[in-house]
Predict the structure.
Amino acid sequence: MDTSVKEKKNESWVATSCNACFNICAIRVHQKDGKVVDITGDPAVASSKGKICGKGKSRLADLYNPERVTTPLRRRNPEKGIGVDPQWEEISWEEAMDIVVSKLKKVRDEDPRKLVILNFDLCNFHIAQAFSKAYGTPNDQFYNVSCGNGLHTTFFLTLGTINSEIDLDYCNHIVLWGSQLGHGVNNNPLEAIAGMADARRRGAKLVVIDPVCGVAAAKADEWIPIRPGTDAALALGMLNVLLNELGLYDAEFLKNKTNAPYLIDGSGRYVRDAESRKPMVWDALKQRAAVYDADDIGDFALEGSYEVAGKSCRPSFDLLKEHVRKHYPLEKVAEISTVPAETIRRLAKEFGEAARIGSTMQMEGQTLPYRPAAVEFKRGVTHHKNGFFNVFSLQLLNIVVGNLNTPGGLLGTNPHGPVELWKMFKGRDGHLTSNMYYNLIQGYDSFACFMSPYPPNEVKAPESLNLRGLFPLSGFLPGIPCFSILEPEKFGIPYKPDTMIICRTNPMIGQNDPKKLAEMFRKLDFILGFGIKIDETLEFADIVLPEAHDLERYWFLPANQPAGFQRPGPGDWYFQTVQPVVDPPPGVRSWLDVMIELGDRLGILPELNAELNNVTMLHMMEPLKLDPNTRYDMKEINNRQGKLFSMLAGDTSDEIFTPEKPVVNMGKKQLHECYSTPFTDARVPIYLEHLLDVGEEVKRVTRELGMDWWDVSHYQPLADWRPCPAYEDTSEEYDLFVSSSRLPLHNYSISADNPWVDDVSTHSRLDYHILLNTATAKRKGICDGDTVCVASRTGTVKGKVRVTECVHPEVVATLGGHFGQWARQKKIAKGKGINHNALLALDWNMVGTLTGQLDSCAKVKIYKEK
C-alpha cells in the first residue's frame, strides 16, 4: 500500500474506490501536483471493468467545492429550527475536541446509552459500532435509509443473503417491479448496465411495473402503470393465475426446496412428530405421514386433506392455492391495482412459460436447473407499511417457478463466501438459515442489523432506540429512533437521549416530514456533526468538525462487500483497494481518525481496539490484532485488513495493493457458491408458520409494557395485500397519490449540490419538475409549464409541472426525491426541485410493526399557484 500521499510523484494514477453511492466501484484517479484532474473506472477490477458513471466522475467537483468546511465551527445561536441561522464561529481543533470530550465524558458518567450515533458512512459502520460498544451505548444504528426492512428480511429467508440480482447472463424474461436494475440505479450499476445491455441484445424481454415510467420503463418492452402500494395484490393475483388457472409451477422444487409439503393443522401450525418435533409431510406414494427429512419418502403431497394423530391437516401449498383463489380473483385485483384482468392473466402466463419449468443446463460438468425468468424488486415495492408482505408476495412468483439461486433466475448476492467466511445452511425445521461473516464473530452482535430473521431473535423490552427487542424478525431498523427519541417514554426506553454524533447522513432531506425531524433534533442537548459541507441536518449541530472527502482518506476494508454489493454468480472473490489520492485541505481530518482519537481521550482505547479487532476480523490472524493500548490511525487499520485478506487468499507478501494490483484476489467462485440452491437441502418458506408464535410473544411483551396499541396483526403465515394508511383518506380534496422515481445521476442528498450533476438536471425536461398525467392535467385545468402546488396533510411543495403520459393517472410524481434543499451552504441545490419527503408523514401509524418499514404513501391535491 502507498506509504504516503506526499511521497507520490507529481503526476500519477492511483487505484482506489468510489463512494458516490453504496456500490463502491473500483476507480483510478489521476492526480497532478497534488490535485485530482480525472477519475476513470479501473479495468483491472470487476466492479467497474474500466467504466464509471456520472455520479462517480462528478465527485471531482465535490472535492473542490468552495463551500467546504475547513475549520471547526461552534454554534452561537441557541435557537434551532428549519431555516434558522446557526451563526457559526470558527474555533480551533483543540478547543472543539475539548468541548466534545467534556460532553461525552459527562454523558458516559450519567448513562452512556444517552449517546446516539447517526451515521450512513456505509463502508465504515465499523467505527460507529466499535466506538458505541466501547463507550457503552447500543444506539449506533440510526440513519435515514429505510429501503431495506422488508427486502433484507425476505432475501435472508429465501436467498440466504442480504441482497439479490437477476442472473442477467442467462435470464430471458426480466420483470423489474419498482426497480431499475441495469439502468444506472440499484446494485452493482456498472456491471448490471453491461449485463442488461447484453441480455437485451440477445433478445431478453423487459417488463417494468411501476407507477412512473422512469429510466428503466422508458427502455422496456412493456411498462405496466400500477396504483402505488398495490404491488402485493397484483403479485398474488398473478400467483392465483399460475397456481389455479394454469397449473404452471415447479412441483419438484416446491416439494424438495420449500416448506410447501409441510402439513398444517387447524391452528395454522406445523403438524410435528411427537418425538423429534420435526415438521411432518404426507407421503403420497405410501399414503402415510412422515417427518419432512425422512430418507424413505416416496413422494411429497402438495395438495389434499389428511388426518395425522387425530388432527385434520393440509400441505401449506394447498392452503396457499386456496388463499390466492379466494382472496385474489382477477376482477378484485384489477380494481385494487388498476391493471386490467386480461393484462394480469397475460403477465402471469408469459412469466410462467418463460421460466421453462423442468429445463436444465450443463455447467462445469454439473446438471443445474435452468429458469430464465425472474422478478426483481427493491425500494419501490418495500417502502410501504406492508412492505414485508409486498416483497414476499413478489418473491412467491420466483419461488413457484423454482428460480431461486439457479441459472437465469434470481440470485442472492453471494450467500456462500470464500473460505467459509459466511454461508447459508439448513437450520431449524429444515429452513434456509444464513450466517454472514459478521455473525461468525462469537459473542459479538453489533452487526445485528444484518442478522438473519430465522430463527427469530428474542422478544424483550427494548433497550436500544431502534426497539430491536420488539422486532424479532427484522435486522434492519435504521429509522425507528426518530420515534423513540421524540417519545422515549411511549416505547419503554428507560433513559432520555441527550447527545448525538452525526456523519454522512441527512435525514432532514432524506426522511419523512422535516418538521417532525426538526422537533426531534431540538430534544437533544448536544449535537456533534462531521461534514464536508453544512447540510440541512448539520444546521442543528452545536459543533461541526471538517470531514475529509473519500479521495482524501483511508477507509475500512472490504469496501466492495462480497455479501452485499458484489455481483452474484460466476466470477472471482476479490477485495479492492481503498486509499487516499490527495491530502485533505489543512485543518481537515477523516471522521474515522477523529473517532479513534475521541476514544483515546475518553479513556476507552483498550475497549475500542478490542471491538475494532472484532468488527474488522483482525483477531483472526494474531500478528494483525490491534494492541489494546496503541492508538492506530485508519491507514494502519486499512493496511492490516488488506494483509488479513491477502493471508486468507494465501498471499503472505508485504505488498498488498499496488497500482498494478488494485485487488486481493481470493480465487474463482466454486459452482455451489454461484448457484447455491441445487447444492443445498435447506428449504425456503412459502408459508411463514413461525410468525404465529413470534406474534404471540410480541403481543405478550408489549402488553406487559403497557403498549396495548402495538399492532401484531401482521404476524400471519400467508402473504396478503394491505392498503397503505394513505388509503384511509377518501376525501375528494386529496384525490391523488404522490410517488417518486430514482434518477441515475443522483444519490442520497449530496448529488443535488454538485455543479456537474446539476447542469445535467437543469437541462433535463423532467428532473426538477412535477409530473402529471395528461388526462389528469386536463381534468384539473393544468397546462405543461404551469407553477403548481402539491399539498398533503403533512406539507406543501411548489414547482413547475410537466404534463406527460409517463405517469399513472392517479399519481403526482417527483424525480430524485432529495431535491428542494434549503441549507445556506447549498448554493447550487438550494431551492431547486421538489422535496418529496416534505409530503410524507412521520407518524407511528405509518410503521409496519413486523419489520419496522416506514410507509412512503401519501394522498395529495394539486392546484395552480394563485
About this structure: Residues 6 and 50 are 26 Å apart (CA to CA). The chain is about 25% helix and 20% strand. Residues 3-7, 437-449 have pLDDT under 50 and may be disordered.
